[in-house]
Design brief:
Blueprint lengths: L14 H18 L5 H4 L5 H20 L3 H5 L4 H29 L1 H8 L2 H9 L8 H24 L6 H31 L5 H26 L6 H32 L2 H7 L1 H15 L5 H29 L15
Helix pairs in contact: 1-11, 1-13, 3-5, 3-10, 3-11, 5-6, 5-9, 5-10, 6-8, 6-9, 6-13, 7-8, 7-9, 7-12, 8-14, 10-11, 12-14, 13-14
């Protein structure tokens, strides 16, 4: 096993890198928030079909873009990297989107947003174990704000599921929790792979992930033919194709590229906080789709989410300042001398 540090947490990011990383994180969240709407736009199709449609388009686009440089690029990709691509594509794309689509269609956007909103908590807690990362105690205020915001986001959905049976709500909740676990594993594994791959750009890594995900979607086609037996009209298929292509280009291509760029600029503990923007934008798109204004609880959630990110940023800036000027604030250092 390599002894290379698994995240850039031990290197304080410059102000320019931090601002660029945050901008990329916001952009990725804005594009990823669209995936919460897709299952509602094509409710006639099941989660497996939605995943196949999105990632088949993603794979075809990625293959076309990477074809001219395939031979030169793959010289830097060994067996270990291909295995990493396979499990990252499955955890972060194929399995995640199947579970997310099922959670939205069964439990609703609000409940799904609540569970996915805990992604920053899970990623940040695990990232705090990396070499040189901020101690968890310094991130506690940010994590508490994040958790409070997530609770506000889905409080109404969990407090009164009047329309559906308890069984359906539990199935939806289980799918959302599964999506949470799947994407947490992807976010951490992907960030660590990008740190080790010095000769492969974040954009090329995204294209390679797209090719592998597209291959996985082809393997799932026979399963979808067996499980999904509903007949659809030509109009349904046209709308399905448009939604699949749109999500593939905007979320999988552009969104993933921005996320990979951000993962190389920010430490993992801060990367976790950036996932909050997906929740924020998912809620905004949900308000527009439902043609309504946010409730008091939803406004409180948005405020808490923003304050969580600001709190995490402040903790990282303070730590970086201490490392650059250790004599200015010696008492701020932990007893072991690390930050």
């Amino acid at each position: 096993m390599t002894t290379t540090p698994i995240s850039p947490s031990h290197i304080p990011p410059s102000r320019g890198d931090t601002l660029t990383g945050i901008a990329c994180g916001m952009g990725a969240g804005a594009l990823w928030g669209l995936v919460f709407l897709a299952p509602e736009l094509v409710r006639e199709f099941g989660p497996l079909q939605l995943s196949i449609g999105r990632y088949l388009c993603y794979g075809l686009i990625a293959a076309a873009l990477i074809a001219p440089r395939w031979r030169s690029l793959t010289t830097f990709i060994g067996r270990r990297q291909w295995l990493s691509l396979i499990w990252l594509a499955f955890a972060g794309n194929t399995l995640y989107y199947i579970l997310l689509s099922a959670a939205v269609q069964v439990g609703g956007i609000a409940m799904t947003s609540l569970v996915i909103g805990f992604l920053p908590v899970a990623v940040t807690i695990i990232g705090s174990r990396d070499e040189g990362a901020l101690p968890l105690a310094k991130l506690l205020p940010s994590l508490l704000l994040c958790a409070m915001g997530a609770v506000c986001i889905g409080w109404q959905a969990l407090a009164g599921p009047a329309a559906d049976s308890t069984g359906r709500q539990m199935i939806g909740l289980a799918c959302a929790v599964g999506a949470l676990a799947s994407w947490t594993a992807y976010a951490i594994g992907n960030a660590r792979c990008l740190v080790r791959l010095e000769h492969v750009s974040a954009h090329d890594w995204n294209l390679l992930t797209g090719i592998v995900t597209g291959a996985q979607s082809i393997v799932l086609v026979p399963l979808a033919l067996v499980l999904e037996t509903t007949d659809h009209s030509r109009g349904d298929w046209m709308r399905f194709g448009m939604v699949s292509a749109g999500v593939a280009v905007l979320a999988s291509m552009a969104g993933n590229s921005l996320w990979n760029r951000m993962s190389r600029l920010l430490p993992l503990t801060l990367v976790g906080q950036m996932i909050l923007f997906e929740t924020v934008f998912a809620l905004i798109y949900g308000f527009l789709w439902e043609r309504r204004l946010p409730t008091t609880l939803e406004l409180a959630a948005l405020f808490l989410v923003v304050m969580s990110v600001v709190s995490c940023l402040a903790a990282h800036h303070k730590s970086a300042d201490v490392r650059r000027h250790p004599n200015r604030s010696i008492q701020a250092l932990p007893r072991d001398g690390s930050a």
